[in-house]
Amino acid sequence: MPDGAEDQPILELRGINKSFGPVDVLKGVDFSVWPGKVTALVGDNGAGKSTMVKCISGTYAIDSGDYLFEGQPVHVHSPRDASALGIEIVYQDLALCDNLDIVQNMFLGRERVSGVVLDESSMEQSAGETLKSLSVRTVSSVRQRVSSLSGGQRQTVAIAKAVLWNSRVVILDEPTAALGVAQTAQVLALVRRLADRGLAVVLISHNMLDVLEVADHIAVLYLGEMAAQVARADVNQQQLVELITTGHLAGDRAAAVTKGPSA
Amino acid sequence: MTDVENDKSRIPPDPTEEAGGEPGTGRPDGAGGVGEYVRRYAGRVRGGDMGSLPAFAGLVVLVILFSLLQPTFRGLYNFGNMLTEGSGPVLLAMGLVFVLLLGEIDLSAGFTGGVCAAVMVRLMVGYNMPWPVTIGAALVTGVLIGLLIGWLRAKVRIPSFVVTLAFFLAFQGVALYIVDNGPGAHGDVRITDSVVLAFENSQMPIWAGWVLAAVVILGYATLKVMGQRARLRQGLTGEPTPVLALKVAVLAVASVAFVWFLSQNRSINTKPILTNVNGTIKLVQPPAVEGVPWVVLVLVFFFVLWTFVLSRTRYGRHVYAVGGNEEAARRAGIAVDRVRISVFVLGSLMAAVGGIMIGSNVAAVSVQNYSGNTLLLAVGAAVIGGTSLFGGKGRMIDAIIGGAVVEVIQNGMSNLVQGTNGSSVQYMVTGIVLLLAAAIDALSRRRAGVTGLG
Fold first, then answer.
1. Is the confidence metric ipTM above 0.85 for this complex?
2. Which of A66, A199, B6, B402 could be B384's S-S partner, Cβ–Cβ 3.0 to 4.6 Å?
3. In terms of domains, do A146 and A174 share one?
4. pLDDT in tens, B109-156
């Protein structure tokens, strides 16, 4: 993606504040996501990652700050608003129904019907095409029940479900947390393919290796503030750990950080 | 080839088997061929997804057992008897399938049926209302009761076990109150309307039975072939043609056999009897009892309707989704509370239908016919048929196969163990069978967890 595209983030948060009663969870957070790029969102437990995702998804209302989509200020009050913009979130616990098959899960809540009858063949076809376009070859049949899938396959289905809806921004919450090595590699490859298709991907992860492997940008939250949002090339693992644990970099290396903690 | 037998076993009483599948199960794809189909099916069964299979096997064993032990059991008369006797609990069980699919329970369904039947009979004998009004009022009463239960569960958030236990007690009182008060007969109120009586006590003309069979077979075959065509047109793999043909053939044979048996005269009084005809004593041939009972039409109607709703509509999909993973359903934008209320409404509506049929069967409405036993038999029917108590798994066919098992036990045991201990043995055996079914349910869940199938 040329630099020109980076000038216009598809999703941008400016000075977002969110508190629950006396507890300020997000304090003036800036965050940008570009199409065709994987933006990792990292931070220790309690840094505010989940809250931020819920603000983006409309589950929580933001107290103050700007929410820009394609440069335009928007108001996102509910998950439906976020979906309408093309923002899809793949939650850690996947939100798949074990007793339904892959097609049924991918279309859940947005089933296609002709008249009152479910249009199964059309849904099956689209689901198959979506999986194919993501180069998913690990599932043998889209009519398999989700309960019969491995963790990696489930994650794949959950991600494919998000992609099916012509989404523009896909937020993945800890997609590799429960996976083995091979499956993690599969999912990370899928994450990369999503970005290569021009989607803006937000990857929330605790795993430094995953983040460094697949991210283009890394945003570090520290105690509710955006400690840094840097290009992947500008940090190494040690610096990243330092940012996560202390919220800043020692000495000259702070120069690598494009945005300091917002006051 | 047990797999082929398994396959057959899923079909006979099910005119829309394809539609009857838990979403997606009856429909393999990705690879065609009979071998592949059988292999997949066997895999599902091994993985604990047995559906109605144990119940069907149990039914076959029980029928053989009672037929050997009891000559009267295997008579045609008894067959018709079991059909009408069992229809009430089966209709109740159909409603409970919806409730169980959400992992809920409706302990009050029996007395809900009692209240609705009491409303019907009071309007009938007390106010001389025509049958469409009395039955309509009973069904509306069922819907209102369902709304109340559903609201208490979904909005007030009282566990359904407690809500319906409370109503189990309260509705017994309401039903008693209605039969003991108001104009007309009290207590054991006899049903006077001939149409209401006809459901369980009259038969269709022979030809109508054959028309019913033809409609069921042709309808099923047409659905299958059209579905197959649509799939192939979309470039998807359909069901292997031999499997499809076999399903249609098995349904055809079962339907024809069913109607043929019921078209025989099954009256046990075959000898001419002395009767007073217009003042003179004559030797008269007793009236023939032949033809399909009208209640079968009611059963087929609701079975096809609910199977269609569950497997072919958005609403049905959402019921399975909420039962499978409530949180996922909520995130998918499904109105979970509305779905939850709706299953109680359908449950109570079917309780009303079942309650009317139970009344029709004994030609009267008296409260003890809707007691806890009725409810437990209906819940037992659904669970024995393969509907999970844990939610998310179950089909309409379960109510029918499970109901058949329960009825065969009831009927067979009552003939087998005569005397004072008859009903005690019946209760014990039904209880054990229910426990067995619940155990199969729980174990298959565990197995599904281990194998990753479910």
1. no
2. B402
3. no
4. 999 999 999 999 999 999 999 999 999 999 999 999 999 999 999 999
